[in-house]
Amino acid sequence: MEDRRVVVETVDLLRQYKQYDEVVNAVNRVNLRVYEGEFVAIIGSSGSGKSTLLHLMAGLDKPSAGKVTIRGREITSMPNDELARFRGNHIGMVFQSHNLIPQFTALENILVPTLMCNKEDTSYEENLKKLVASLGLGDRLHHLPSELSGGQMQRVAIARALINLPLVVFADEPTGNLDRENADEVLDLLLQTKDLLGQTLIMVTHDMAIAERADRVFRMDNGQIISSKVNNREKTE
Ligand SMILES: Nc1ncnc2c1ncn2[C@@H]1O[C@H](COP(=O)(O)OP(=O)(O)OP(=O)(O)O)[C@@H](O)[C@H]1O
Ligand SMILES: [Mg+2]
Q1: In the prediction, which pLDDT does 43 show?
Q2: Which residue among 14, 15, 16, 17 is best mutated to probe the pocket of ligand 1, counting the most ligand atoms within 8 A of its Cβ?
Q3: What's the pTM?
Q4: I need a labelling partner for 133 at 20 to 30 A (CA). Which of 37, 46, 76, 224 fits?
């Protein structure tokens, strides 16, 4: 366990929100380490700080104190333009409400991250073909999000998160709006890509069937990680 490479680390991570004269510690001094190739699920009640923690780790929000490092690079102190490039190259993000750009077609949405980093123009094309095939989006690429079903929109959002072959994928309730069948399919796709690329996957979920498939489950309460459980599963491969 100790030999494994740390991919995401937080040190005394704190995010405070000031509401009137009260201060809310949405994330309260969180210290965690996630290793290469791990699938970590984050669970906890509504308002416990799961999304705030995920956004901090993905570089979408800045902490009030503490730091986040990804593969040894401290992202919390990076200038914005460098962070945008780093995120484009190494981080994939899937939101609960897919956050697709309504005026862009499915294909244009998928390609957004390729515009944000210095990839060669065509380096994503092979991956695009694979993603489109495995996500079953072939005949939907030129449709607008409003012309897609919920499951299809979430698949587009996943293709967008994976287009640059990121090192780490952060997902905030990616299956929250889907029925059981679609939720399982979306999880299978994320796990297949993760295994293929040796990615690290950190997912907020309230779906215990999904949390059971994670390597470790962190439970949050009141801005803190109150327990970390290792799921011991026999690997069949
Ligand atoms: N922009 C904000 N301004 C003020 N308070 C906020 C803001 N965002 C979150 N909070 C507060 O921070 C705490 C944690 O919120 P967060 O969204 O991280 O919870 P969560 O665990 O993701 O909940 P849910 O399961 O409902 O998505 C809550 O008390 C919330 O009210
Ligand atoms: Mg949330």
Answers
A1: 97
A2: 17
A3: 0.91
A4: 37
